[in-house]
Every structure is written in structure tokens, then in C-alpha cells.
Design brief:
The chain is about 35% helix and about 25% strand. It has about 500 residues and is of the alpha+beta class.
């Protein structure tokens, strides 16, 4: 079952060799007539263009950031956004030059002059780990393993000798498959509908059949939105969801925008047009390619084996959990990057992980669990009375700025509530909770304010274990916010951490 039969995922206008995709064609600056031949190379971490005899004036200015239009040799329109020159060599005597550029975004199938000009309401998305997340089994509350794998969608009967027996078996299997096959998961969130489903691509030879299974998400917005809004409102929450759920790195593997243009169907010859409905002929696909934001750390030993939150663990309640996830991610705002970016980066110093997780913890607590020590009007009255006792204006200004924030919880108080909330479902976290809180705060203060280290400041050897335990505290809090049952969370944690609580 394909989510969208009109969406293809081939290498349009390009050749893939050793993980590098190359597209040859001609390129030009929007609004100019001069054309230059160039070779575009698409890799995981970079999109580069090598132009021969570029008509662009050189040498480039430091702020030479712009847009380039192109056309591949097979006629596909191309656009490079946020493109700038990183190297140029001119041969003055011959008049030839070679220019190398890099870009932040490549569009295959559209020509625009800015990212917000690409407006669409439908897209198909593939993510690293999506297939594993959708097909992994998980312990349910009754202790059973549940799983919805791709083969449940694409089962075929095994033929027997004799056509009568074959037809009888085919009929029985057909009714059985109708009962057993799980339909694609459709989730409605505010402003969009998301369809999670598996796809199968068949191939091979006359003597050998080969099928490859994958997973896709079809996103359909109520109102068309520009590309930057897609990235922030829909793509980033989905990537961060898999980072949390899989405990593995996640990047966008394929993102195809589907645009309906009725004029395309009208341009098709009537004799050809009758072969398919107008919805097929009027559909235009635009592949959006961006370099991966992180360096993937490939795991060869049991990757995606110890997930924290497989889809199977809440599939029956996904229509409630997933909309809640998008709401939580939206409310976290920029603080989400401190947490999910730290998990997705793969490798980093433990000191950086600690500072990022504490920054997220403070923003997370302010958003969902914050409580003022005193009522706002009482606080304002007390501060005014304090400042009234000071006759010097410089002193009033100095202490007034600091007293303005005195009605907020300290980081120690925030961590205490987060740890206690996680310990309600994971009792092992209650042991040494006060010690962990003091160690995290004092170590953070040592990193940010310097000075003589106190007795609670963690050393390098101790830091790794404390950061892992604090990470578990934040994960458990997020699971509870998503509405995952308190009885199920300990089972998920034991499975994800292989029976070991940090």
C-alpha cells in the first residue's frame, strides 16, 4: 500500500554513485540570460555546485548569498537557495573560470526566488528510523508484545498445484487478510492530517522476486503553507519525536512537496488525458533537499533495538498522543532545541550535554510546571516597600532590577519537582535525589560562574552517569505529559535501558 501513488522517490535527473548524487545541467542567475554549465553534487552534509565558465562577476563578495536557477539535462527545473561561492579560480589569459558554490536548500521541480514562494498543502516525508519505529514491538499493559509490521499490509497467498485449489486458497486468504491487515494510521492534529503507512517496492529478475519495505508520512494541511512554516511547524516536531522515541539519531531522508496545478492537466493531449483522472495530470512534485544538520553515527550493533516509545506501545491511543505531542513541542518553542538537539547530535562533551539539558529543564518547567512563590500583586507590594527604604537612587535601580525576579523558583526548586515527578513512576530515581539536584546545580554554576569548586561539583569520571540519570528524569516527565500510562512507563524504561537505571 502506497500512501500516494503519484509520489516517486527516484533520483530525478541524477546519478547515485557511492552515496553521492550528481545532476548535470545549466545554471543562471534569476533575471539574467547568460547560462553556465555545472555539475551539482548532493551528499548527506553538503550540496555543492561546480560551475564552468561562470558568468557571475568575481571575485565574490563576502556576503554574496543568493539564488541560482537551473535546468537538468532531462529538463527538470532546479533552484538553489542560500547559495554562496566558496572557491573560484580564473584564468585571465584564456577568459575561463571554475567556481564552486554551496547551498542550504535544493529544489528539484520548481523555480522560485525565495523559500516562502514555495507554497503547498500536501507532502510525503521519509525519516531515518520511521520504518523501525512503526514496526517495532513493545510490551503493552497486559505484558504482551504487539507489533504492526509492513508484511501485514502486503501479504500474498502461496499458490498450490491446481487452479481450483489455488482459487479456494486465494479466496480464504483474501478474507483473512481483510480481517487481519491493519489500516494506515491517520491522525488529525490542529491544522493538518497525518497518515502513517508502509510502502513496498518490488523488483528482481524473472527467477527472483525482491521486495523492499519502507515507511512514509503523508501530511495534508487544511491551508497551504510556505516551505519555512513546514520546516518549523511540522518537520522539526516529527524529527524530534523519533529522536525521543527511538533514542537514535534522526534526519529527513526524503521530503517531496505535492502541488496541484489544474493548468498542467489542461496541457495534456486529450488522447493521453483519458488514461488517468485529472488529479494525476495536474499534480506536480517538488523534491526538497537540505544537508543533514548532524553527522550520523552509524550503529552496526543492534541499531533501533532499545527504543523508549515504539508506536506499538500507544498505537490504540495515537489519535490522542500525537496531537498532544505537537502541542507540547509548540509550547516549548526554542527550548526544545536544547534537549532534542543534544540527543540528536550523536557525540558531544558531557559538559555541553549538562548545560543544554539544564537549560531545557528550566524552560520546560517554566512552561508546564511553574508556580510563583507569592501572588504577583503581593510580590509587587513587597518589592515597592523594600525599595522605598532606600534613599539613594542608584541603590534603588540596582536592587530593583534584581528584586524583579525574586518571585521566581530557583533552579534547585525546579529540579526537585522534576525529579520527584519522575520518581513517582520510577522509584529508583528517588534514591539520592537531593544529592543529584545539588550536584547538577553546583556543577552548572562552576561552569558558568567559575570560582573555587564546591564539594558537590562533579568530576569528569562522575559526570557521565549523572547526566544520563538526569536525561532519564526528563524523558519520564515527557512521557507522563504525553499521557502514557504510569504502569507502562517503567516497562518502557527497563526495555530501553536494558534493565539498568542510570
Amino acid at each position: 500500500m502506497r500512501l500516494d501513488s503519484a509520489v516517486t522517490h527516484g533520483t530525478v535527473g541524477g546519478v547515485v554513485v557511492d552515496g553521492k548524487r550528481t545532476i548535470e545541467g545549466v545554471w543562471w542567475t534569476p533575471g539574467e540570460q547568460a547560462r553556465s554549465y555545472g555539475t551539482l553534487t548532493v551528499e548527506r552534509r553538503a550540496v555543492t555546485l561546480m560551475l564552468c565558465d561562470s558568468s557571475r562577476p568575481g571575485p565574490p563578495a563576502p556576503d554574496d548569498v543568493g539564488v541560482l536557477h537551473g535546468e537538468s539535462l532531462d529538463g527538470q527545473p532546479l533552484t538553489l537557495l542560500d547559495a554562496f561561492t566558496i572557491h573560484r579560480r580564473d584564468w585571465i589569459t584564456s577568459g575561463h573560470n571554475v567556481e564552486r558554490l554551496t547551498a542550504g536548500t535544493l529544489l528539484i521541480g520548481a523555480e522560485v526566488t525565495a523559500a516562502d514562494e514555495l507554497v503547498f498543502a500536501r507532502a510525503v516525508l521519509r525519516l531515518r528510523g520511521l520504518r523501525e519505529w512503526m514496526s517495532a514491538s513493545s510490551l503493552s499493559l497486559d505484558g504482551r508484545h504487539s507489533v504492526v509490521g509492513p508484511r501485514q499490509h502486503f501479504q500474498t497467498p502461496t499458490p498450490r498445484r491446481g487452479w481450483r485449489e489455488h482459487m479456494r486458497r486465494w479466496s480464504r486468504d483474501r478474507h483473512r487478510r481483510r480481517r487481519e491487515q491493519a489500516p494506515p494510521l491517520v491522525v488529525h492534529v490542529q491544522g493538518a492530517a497525518l497518515t502513517f503507512g508502509f510502502t513496498r517496492e518490488a523488483g528482481g529478475t524473472p527467477f527472483r522476486d525482491v521486495s523492499e519495505y519502507d515507511a512514509e508520512i503523508l501530511l495534508e494541511l487544511d491551508t497551504a503553507a510556505p516551505l519555512p512554516e513546514w520546516s518549523e511547524r511540522w518537520l522539526r516536531p516529527l524529527v524530534d519525536l523519533l529522536v525521543l522515541a527511538n533514542r537514535e539519531q534522526c534526519v529527513i531522508e526524503s521530503f517531496v512537496a505535492v502541488i496541484d496545478e489544474p493548468a498542467l492537466a489542461e496541457a495534456v493531449h486529450p488522447a493521453t488525458r483519458v488514461a488517468a483522472p485529472d488529479s494525476v495530470w495536474s499534480r506536480r512534485e517538488v523534491e526538497v533537499i537540505r544537508p543533514d544538520p548532524v553527522e550520523l553515527r552509524e550503529r552496526e550493533i543492534e541499531p533501533f533495538r532499545h527504543m523508549l516509545l515504539p508506536l506499538a506501545s500507544f498505537r490504540s491511543r495515537a489519535v490522542d498522543v500525537l496531537p498532544l505531542w505537537f502541542d507540547i513541542h509548540r509550547r516549548l518553542g526554542g527550548a526544545a532545541a536544547f534537549f532534542f538537539g543534544t540527543l540528536n547530535v550523536g557525540r558531544s562533551y558531557q559538559e555541553n550535554r549538562l548545560l543544554n539539558l539544564l537549560a531545557f529543564a528550566e524552560g520546560y518547567h517554566r512552561t508546564f510546571l511553574d508556580a510563583l512563590p507569592f501572588a504577583a500583586d503581593v510580590h509587587d507590594e513587597v518589592v515597592a516597600r523594600m525599595l522605598w527604604t532606600l534613599e539613594d537612587r542608584t541603590q534603588r535601580d540596582h536592587y530593583g532590577t534584581r528584586l524583579r525576579y525574586a518571585n521566581e523558583q530557583s533552579l534547585r526548586q525546579r529540579l526537585r519537582q522534576l525529579i520527584e515527578r519522575a520518581a513517582e513512576v520510577i522509584p529508583e530515581l528517588r534514591a539520592q535525589a537531593a544529592t543529584l539536584r545539588n550536584e547538577l546545580v553546583d556543577t552548572r554554576n562552576q561552569y558558568t560562574h567559575f570560582g573555587e569548586p564546591g564539594q558537590n561539583v562533579l568530576g569528569t569520571a562522575e559526570l557521565h552517569g549523572r547526566v544520563d540519570r538526569f536525561l532519564l528524569v526528563l524523558e519520564v516527565n515527557l512521557l507522563r505529559d504525553l499521557g502514557i500510562e504510569d504502569e507502562l512507563i517503567p516497562k518502557l524504561v527497563v526495555y530501553a535501558y536494558q534493565g539498568r537505571i542510570p
